[in-house]
Amino acid sequence: MLRLARGRRMVNSCPVTLLVSPCVVAATTRSSSSSSSSSSSSSSKQKSGPQPRARPSGPPPPFELVPTCPSPTCECAATPAMPDGLEIDRKAPLNGVMSAYAEQVLVCTGKDDWASRIEEENSGDNLAADLKELFGRGGTYSDPWHNISVLNASFPSSTPKRSELQTTSAYLLPSFKYVPFLPRVSFDSVQALAKGYLLPETLHPMHDGLSPIHRDRLTRKEAYRSLLYGVRDVTDVLVLVCGHGGRDMRCGVMGPVLRDEFEARLEGAGVDVARGPIEVDESGGEVQKIGPPEGRETAGRGGISARVGLISHIGGHKFAGNVIVYIPPGLRAKGGEAHPLAGKGIWYGRVEPKHVEGIVKETVLEGRVIADMFRGGIDENRKILRL
């Protein structure tokens, strides 16, 4: 209004209508209307109280859910008491409580427990230490967008025919590969594993600014696979239970009890539970298959076989027992169709012996995920799964 008043004094001969354009009038009207509307809306909100904000709904999970674990139909092992001062967190939400990773490497140690830092086993001379040196923070192949998780497992390594040759075996998940022989005499086999299997085929877009030499160093070279013989697909269901007592006694107490319970309930459901090392001959041919021999079917379960092992720290000891169930890509359900969770790894927390039968039935046999124990998961494309 001050600007209009000055305009009138300067141009007295002009009609007022020329000084106040339709645009100004319209804008003023809209402004007044908006202010009035805003004031009215604000007043209305104050009267009615704060309005709840609608949460965006994400896509449904790529699997069927059951809300809670079914009650056991058989007598299970008792839930062990936890050490004083180390309680299980039964209140915090579980969904999404897992670190993202591109690959888990399970080092077959044949042991049930390890030092708190697994790379310190055997005075630091071990495969886990070698891999952490390459892929850990500051390592040659360190990549925050392609995390390699290195764990120790209780599975025994395959034994080479030359008994004087010291080797280690490893599982790669969710690649579902078993590498039977990684000689400890040199670092060459570790480099072959890293370059041939663990590095990504393509880099994350965040690496676009790297030099060609740096990009080449961080990218997989499949020619290195020829340096490791006997590598094959895993066809077993793998049930991995954290039992790392050297890190936290909650898992150290719960893990062995759950392992025994899983083996018993799997066998009770007609699943062939494999134990002992995988035997591989000098040519790399498999003497004892990881899964059941071709054409053989176990009782009512269409040839499902499984291995149950203890593993080292995966995070979340306060949620013990912690269990990961890996379903191999080629697994068939009881009707002959593809298993609904084929190629996926499903993480569970707060698992007790009374839940084992339900996990075997719902997840291993039927391909359903138990919602109230679900921590997360990973699929064959390395996508992290959450509800």
Automatic annotation (TrEMBL):
Top-rank taxon, per record: Eukaryota
Record's compositionally biased regions (Low complexity): 31-56
Residues forming coiled coils: none
Region (Disordered): 30-65
Similarity remark: Belongs to the AIM32 family.
Name this polypeptide is given: Altered inheritance of mitochondria protein 32
Taxonomic lineage: Eukaryota, Fungi, Dikarya, Ascomycota, Pezizomycotina
